[in-house]
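Q: Two folds, back to back.
A: First:
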Amino acid sequence: MTDGAASTVDLVRAASMEKIVALCKRRGFVYPGSEIYGGLANTWDYGPLGAELKRNIKDLWWSTFVQRRRDIVGLDAGILMHPKVWEASGHVVNFNDPLVDCKTCKSRFRADHLIEERLGQQVDGKSPDELSAILAEAKLPCPRCGNRTLTDARQFNMMFTTTIGPVSETGVQVYLRPETAQAMFVQYKNVLATTRVKLPFGIAQIGKAFRNEITPGNFIFRDIEFEQMEIEYFVKPVEAAEAFERWIADMRGWLDLLCVRAEHVRVREHSPEELSHYSSRTIDFEYLFPGPMGWRELFGLANRSDFDLSQHQQ
């Protein structure tokens, strides 16, 4: 794609997104965060109608997957957990994105997204060195200022940190959770002891998660602060493949319940290079969003095997 064509696509994307943002603000669905102070990038507040819509979806999900089922129980865990949780889960080492910086305007971008959007190449699983080589060969300009002064790709951890204690120098560094799942693994034994559930069973949770990632500016899609509706379902290893297929059907049923048009949904299997460090199989349910966004992930289904429970047992 030429620089001129890329600029045209960016302008169309910005114009379409601006109309959506303006409509949501005007109707009271979503407001820019901290707007009276100039706003804070990639933060949004749900207005009166947005809050009701969001609550309705969460209530329906909880009713469908927890209250109406005998095999799933609920959990409401805290956002902050012991830092060793994230060391054991692999997030401290593996929860990274490959980023590049513009030396001219100081903007930061996802290296893999730049290559996929500008060159049309799929680069899942490639190392920072491989991404840097592709960027250097293509001589891609900075999407923001147009200068060809992008740095080599480097890995950046996406977890936010904060400190517990009155003095930061002596306090304990902790992380804002990047996913709700780990609490369900950490509390697995307590859930077993107090509810007397037996395999197969699931633990469900709705809660905030935080990821310090470079977002593409697609409004509330993939923000740095968001809510997850998540289920961890535990089965015997020999039953995992069958359970995986059942959950694919259950997820399709959930979309039907929301009256999502079937022709706008597809299931995409992750390649081996694309799999997360904890997953032996992952699929994404993707939705065909209007305009330049195209196919984007709605939610995923992953076979985490016994990775998490084993890590926390050590």
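A: Second:
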Amino acid sequence: MNIGIWVDWICIGAFAMSGVFAARDRKAELDLFGVVVVAVLTAIGGGTLRDIILQTPVFWLTARDQIYCPILVGVLGFFLTRSRRHHRLDRPVAMLDAVGLAYFTVMGTQKALLLGAAPFIAVLMGLMTGVSGGMMRDAYTGQVPYVMRRNTDIYATTSLLGGVVVVLLPGSLGLWLGGLVCFGLRMAAIRWKVCLPSARW
């Protein structure tokens, strides 16, 4: 099996599980179906929106494993969060979420470039791929999106900077360095609580 498929599954699964854990942290009153919807929205919402805007076939309509994966992870996450020990998974899930953010940012940016998008638009498509699923999750659970909330660790900014690296550097070098920049900044933000200035009103 192609290693790229495994990477897709891992990153989609990581996003799906992070969506479940985020819903848990906000005490969203969801049943099993609701948890699965949250997992699916978080995992594939950004890529779906990107493909619609770029007027290209939505990726999971042709690669159906990429819709099955978050459904299965959502079911698994539902039962995991019912366990008394589920908080032990918080740090690993946060790290995997950072990996997923980096991966989907660079892949979204690259896809837009390959379809002929201008560099600025490609960066926006990478950002959309990385963060829109989480915004859909938060809207679904009645929350202000995490990426817009004050006093939260930077998230969208790391995706934006990773996408900029992808468009500035050629080929695989840009992909690798863009991913590393995005991942590294996200982990640093978690570690040192790096936040953007907040509106005061």
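Q: And?
A: The radius of gyration is 16 Å.
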